[in-house]
Amino acid sequence: MPIKTSLAANGIACQRGGRLLFADLSFTLEPGQGLLVTGPNGAGKTSLLRLIAGLLPLAAGSFESGDASLPLPELCHYVGHANGIKSALTLQQNVAFWVDFLGGGDADLDDALEMFALAELKDLPAGLLSAGQKRKLALLRLFAAPRPIWLLDEPSVSLDAASVKVLDKAIAQHLAQGGIAVVASHTLLKVKFAQALALKREAVQ
Amino acid sequence: MKEAWALFRRDVVLAWREGGTIGTALGFYLVVVAITPLGLGPDLNLLSRIAPGVLWVALLLASLLSADRIFHNDYEDGALDVLATGLLPLELVAGVKSLAHWVTTGIPLALLAPLLGLLLNLPIESFPLLVLAMLAGTPAVSFVAGIGASLTLGLRRSGVLLALLVLPLYVPVLIFGVETVSAASVGPASPWPPFLILCALSLASLVLAPIAAAAALRTALR
Question: How far apart are the C-alpha atoms of A96 and A87, rounded to whole Å?
Fold first, then answer.
């Protein structure tokens, strides 16, 4: 973990399709802190993560990271509902592309492949994987390049119990190394999150 | 630089693997040009006179067939989110992906053109310039197609809309492309002035189109 950074949101608001999802939301995460985002469907959990990753424009407010030398999106790993996997490429080729494209240098992902029990499948086209295996492959992106902020949107969807444990361990390790994790999840993860944020459904007027 | 190369390589490999991309464009080009003489009758003089125009129009239509793939697949499977949070500016992402489209569509089509020229009785001595003109003009085709592809992201039946948006922008390429090949085959003017304008069109779109495409991608991600 080369860079440590903090993440602060100052009075941010999110507007989707003319509807205000949330407004005046503020939080500060120090290195090593996790934030668990909960709330009913449609409360804006995914939107919050996409705002941080710079994939959605802010309606108001601002983000601040402790590291001013890099723009916030380049400090973030975003793993959303869509896996971003190319089904015509093999596992190995998918991973190699992420390492090169995200600037992972000579990152060695063999351990991570082993950890998620994907090592023996690495020459298989990713299109042949099951939903859970695809999810695990998408999560491998977190290890493709060291980035301090992990944004995970329902990371445990379609994972089996053993894989959820691995995921739990990976997040805990990331936090222990001074990383930040913002996780939107309905299932209970064992990781201790320093902060929790409950979004509500009713639109803010 | 390494990031751009990785993306370029991935797109070229995907165009091969996902199948259809290159094959459909080449097949379409072949069929359209092959049925033209059947519709026009066996007048060899007429055919060789209209050959440059037929070859260029068919090339534009064939390259549009695969144009919506430039960004569409990445948008659907979420890979565009990864590309947007990468180290590469979105303008370069758009440029590299358009370049990969040129390599996998523009170049094969340009290389197939002389074969189709035979079907249209195009004089053989004009073949080198035909290929040269198409190689010089097709970058503009791919880069402008990139704008159309990013503007129509997330729309249903985006292919037709893309053609409507982009084909009018191809008019300069078409005019100067046909001009170059006509001058080379029947004369009397020199083919080089329209050829140089063709190069200029490609160079300008190389620089300007990625900026427009990236702006459209940003709105598409919202």
Answer: 14
Identify the CA nearest to B148 among candidates B122, B167, B174, B123: B167
What digits encode the pLDDT tens for the residues B103-112?
999 999 999 9
CA dist A92 to A26, A126, B59, Å? 40, 9, 36
Place of tokens 């361990």: A169
Rounded CA-CA distance B180/A1 in Å is: 58
CATH 3.40.50.300 fits A7-198, yes or no: yes
The answer, for B222 touching chain A at a CB cutoff of 8 Å, is yes
- CB-based contact B14 A83, cutoff 8 Å: no
Question: Which residue of B10, B14, B86 is in closest CB contact with A102?
Answer: B86
Separation CA B55–CA A42 (nearest Å)? 52
Taking the CA of residue B167 and the nearest CA in chain A, the distance in Å comes to 30
Record the pTM: 0.90
Return d(Cα B66, Cα B24) in angstroms, integer. 8
ipTM (interface pTM): 0.86
Question: Could you give the C-alpha distances from A203 to A9, A13, A113, A174, in angstroms and in order?
Answer: 20, 12, 42, 34
CA distance A48 to A43: 10
Amino acid letter, B158:
S
Report chain B residues whose CB lies below 8 A from the CB of A141: 82
